[in-house]
Amino acid sequence: MATIEIKDIIKKENLVYGKTKILTDNIMHYCPGCSHGVTHKIVAEVIEELGIQDKTIGVSPVGCSVLAYNYLDIDWQQAAHGRAPALATATKRLMPDHYVFTYQGDGDLASIGAAEILHACNRGENITVIFVNNAIYGMTGGQMAPTTLLGMATATSPYGREVALHGYPLKITELIALLPGVAYVTRQSVQTPAAVRKAKKAIKKGFENQAKKIGTSFIEIVSTCSSGWKLSPVDSNRWMEEHMFKFYPLGDLKDSEKANEEDYKKYIE
Amino acid sequence: MGELKLMKGNEVIAEAAIRCGCDGYFGYPITPQSEIMETLMLEKPWETTGMVVLQAESEVASINMLYGGASCGKKVMTSSSSPGISLMLEGISYLAGAELPCLIVNVVRGGPGLGTIQPSQADYFQTTKGGGHGDYQVIALAPASVQEMNDFVGLGFDLAFKYRIPSLILTDGVIGQMMEKVIVADHKPRWTDAEIQKISGTWATTGKTKNRERHVVTSLNLESEKQEIHNHHLQAKYREIEVNEVRFEEFQTKDAEYLFVAYGSSARICQKSVELARAKGIKVGLLRPITVWPYPTVRIAELATKVKGMLAVEMSAGQMVYDVRLAVNGKIPVSHFGRYGGVIPSPGEVLEAMEKFIKGGK
């Protein structure tokens, strides 16, 4: 019987999967189980597949993904907390042939940056927004976010979020979907291979929409924060599926190929 | 060259922006400077030069749009008035930290708080002593005429790109609202992509090509030693600007025994007060800082060996006077006269203040 040696297997023709060149070799600072790593990877893969590395400008937020520029080999602007959509607005308007995306967490996008994201989307800026929602402030040590679920314990809601004290969790993606300037709004996740594939397809569509100039594309990724949630990576995924998906159901909220003005007329009639 | 026009100070800011090849204006309405964006929207430069004009949702968004646009190596600007500039300070600190060139116009009104819509010069500290967080400076140009409003738009951009620093035009409701003759510059085309590559190609986010590393525009440095090195670099740049870019104007200082020190509209008033004083036989002159940062410290120190006293005249409770005192360093008496909260002093009351100062009063 002939022995098969490892060098016979490691051949280009046998390669079924490889790391995209858009992803750098820098070791990620994200915690084990964090959704950022996978989300970064699929954004990078989309950029490579579309062949737009030299035309893509990323805008990173303040939060755990502030250092996203260390991991994707494209030009980056690092924004002040919440202001990424303002940077992206100017960048896209001044360089309309470029692909511009913001990458923002829920504290950045839905709390301090609520005005910037709503107005950028309402103007229908031809940008792609990647919104990573893990219902907590990860970087500053697990404080309550606008998206924190009721009853969820965080560093600033240690007895669980309650309405009387903290108000309701904010479904900002549903708000965004109401805006005529927005072409595509979807909510995805990355906890299983199937979910990753769907999320990647959504992100790709978001980038392709920029070439069509049909308005803003907004992709929420419902995510885990095992450090902030104080759960193991596996338990975090389970908790997300059981609790987060109930309040933040997955799927498309809006998918429009039509002119935005038509959409607006629908509202005023 | 150029074209003679009769224009408002605010309008000429807009006209000069279009004519100097500005790529983008991002702003939010606030009195007394709304004519700047109104003029731009009327002129529709996007149809002629391709300049982008956008009314943002807030001053916070405006200044961050500048950060995005400036990151691309584009000539971008905003304008506002005092409360709006307060909102922008975080963004200005980020722009300074990331070394982004841009132009900010502050048509100052009276404060604090919502204050008044009338002219004031009470934003001197905010402009020259940081305002936002961290050790930073912006180049601050203080026009005293509508002509200078025109000239400082181009100059502001030139200095901003020369040093990779935000430039700020520190003016007020007087200069912004008054009409004067002005020679506006000839049209300069906007920079081409190739020109942007030549000017800012080593750092701007124009898309990562195969022949270069990715460009990251950020003000973040998590390692404090590296952040200190970056601060050393900024401070070295500021010292260089202090040597090279001080601008001021002197009026009747040659034989002067006493000096007004005033900038912007106060300097225009003081100029008249000098004439009134001279008619009474009092030898008074005027030093007008054109750049309030960098400040004409060296020249004021020289003049302190020649005159008997200096009176800083500002439409504030006394802010620039501290820089005069630092320059004079105790050699001669220095005092301050100001009307504020939106009140403009008359040349007569400024002269009276000088006469009191000369007599040894305050």
Write up this protein.
- The complex is a heterodimer of chains A (269) and B (362).
- With 269 residues, chain A is an alpha/beta fold.
- Chain A contains 11 helices and 9 strands.
- Chain A has a single domain, classed as Thiamin diphosphate (ThDP)-binding fold, Pyr/PP domains (Rossmann fold, 3-Layer(aba) Sandwich).
- In chain A, 39% of the residues lie in helices and 17% in strands.
- A 7-stranded mixed β-sheet of chain A has the order 2-1-3-4-8-7-9, with helices on both faces.
- In chain A, strand 7, helix 8 and strand 8 form a beta-alpha-beta unit.
- Chain A is globular, with a radius of gyration of 19 Å.
- The mean pLDDT of chain A is 95.
- Chain B is built from 13 helices and 15 strands.
- In chain B, helix 1 crosses helix 2 and helix 1 crosses helix 6.
- The radius of gyration of chain B is 21 Å and the shape is globular.
- At the A-B interface, strand 1, strand 2, helix 3 and helix 5 of A face helix 3, helix 4 and strand 9 of B.
- Strand 2 of chain A pairs parallel with strand 9 of chain B.
